Amino acid sequence: MKIPFLLFALIFSLTTFAQKGKHDVVYLKNGSMVSGHILILDPGKYVKLKTRDNNVWVFEMNQVDSIAQPVKVGVPIKTGYYNLTEMGVLVGNSNNSKSAPFTLMNVNNCQFANGLAAGIGVGVHFFNETYLPVVADVRYFLRKQGPMPFVNLQTGYSIPIGGDYSQTYYYAYDLMVRPGIWPNPNPTAQDVSARGGFLINPSIGFQTKINENLALTFSAGYSYLRHRYGKDETYKLDVDYNRLSLKIGLQFK
Length: 253
Fold this sequence. Notes:
By secondary structure, the protein is mainly beta. The protein folds into two domains: 2-68, SH3 type barrels; 80-252, Porin, CATH 2.40.160.20. It contains two helices and 14 strands. The protein has helices spanning 2-19, 172-177; strands at residues 24-28, 33-42, 46-50, 56-60, 64-68, 80-91, 102-111, 116-126, 130-141, 148-162, 165-169, 188-211, 214-231, 235-252. The strands form two sheets. The protein has an eight-stranded antiparallel beta barrel with strand order 6-7-8-9-10-12-13-14. Strands 4-3-2-1-5 form a five-stranded antiparallel β-sheet, with no helix packed on it. The relative contact order is 0.15. The model is unreliable at 14-21, 71-75 and 173-182 (pLDDT under 50).
């Protein structure tokens, strides 16, 4: 599947870009300096730092003159409104007619100091038809600095905005009038109208900052969608989709 491959290639390139040029620097009292990523900073005791060549250094604080960091350790999570645009795929079985349909979602949330964020989102799903999902979005950040893991729940309703679904079905009237045709009745294939349906998407992921007001998000989860179809009042059909959702997002504050 080309779309998941391209998606993960994009994730890798964006992660590399986000990390490029961002490092912590520990200045020692003997005049030397070591740069990398601070793993642990215990004020008054020690600092543990990992360099770009994957060496890990531990310095007692009485050896340290100063520390320079792109983002201050211990800074509370930035509260307020933010906008998140996510894109990804809903991966299913390779035998499905749509094995990895594309999904796009724009979410407007309010971030609270306790790590909870809540808001609403609107997007687009491309199955046999095109749908406009409208969701409530709730996420909780387990950390408030550095790479921030989170749990997320999106739930709402998909509104059909284009396309028809062709389904082979049998009229109950035909079976009553001509019972002898069963078990080989004459099938009728017609287009039925898409009527939308319920969706729910729990996921886990993490967020990493590019700068003070821009961040990348990555998530994976379970997506359940029910698409309903009908033709007048004579025929109704529910089609359930159980998918793996893989998403990458760009968040603005």
